[in-house]
Amino acid sequence: MEINQLQMKKPRILCLHGYGDSGKILEKTLGKWPEFVLEKMDLVYIDAPFAADPSSFIERFDSPHYMWFQAFHHDHDQFNKSFDEAISYIEEQMIKLGPFDGVLGVSQGGSVTSTLPGMQKQGVALTKVPKIKFVIIISGAKLGGLLFPSSPQLAKNAFSTPIDIPSLHIVGEKDELVLPQYQFELMESFVRPTLLYHHGGHGVPDPLDDNGVKTEGGDQSQESSSSEFELTTLPQFLRFKVRIPSRGRI
């Protein structure tokens, strides 16, 4: 009875939007996913703590625009300060709106998401909330990696040892804002990553896109001949039908 109840419980997931977006924008974007996927998740959207400057990149959205950290003009002090404040803010929101099972992040939000399990394990952040069980990272790059080499030390230390929780990395092969190579670098920091590689660009894709996706992860000895992508190390809500091209390194 207890096992059945756990299986029926929707995983509660904190959602962190990308640079120049908002919780409202991400909710609208993810709302385009199939209902049979969304109905299996309890998604909670929040706005980042810092206002982002309006630009042509974000003018298409009629909404306030936010960012998780300020990493411009090589201002390391501002980067460190804003990142620290963002992590404290995220913990406050997790206490207020949780408990959460996992975290989903897009672009800049995905980069922040990737640091949370490592910092939590080290006891330097998220010490007042339950352990993060899994992460979903869409178009995210590694802080301290090729794209963000001068990141806060706190973020770099988060990857000092491989992150041993299930992770799903959604990467678009035509992403020109965060190149796939930067996203693969982040994926390599996880012990049990699964890659969903689609033919689109930056940001949230349609998981049932007829253009097809390529997946890697789980048991590497198994062939990917089935049309069903099942991420067995993550909750059941991440099971859906996709087209899987022939297996091979991407």
UniProtKB/TrEMBL annotation:
Q: Name one Pfam family in it.
A: FSH1
Please indicate which superkingdom the organism of origin belongs to. Answer: Eukaryota
- The record places domain Serine hydrolase at 9-206
Gene3D superfamilies, per the entry: alpha/beta hydrolase (3.40.50.1820)
Question: Where is the stretch described as Disordered?
Answer: 201-230
- What is the protein name for this chain? OLC1v1008778C1
Q: Which organism is it from?
A: Oldenlandia corymbosa var. corymbosa
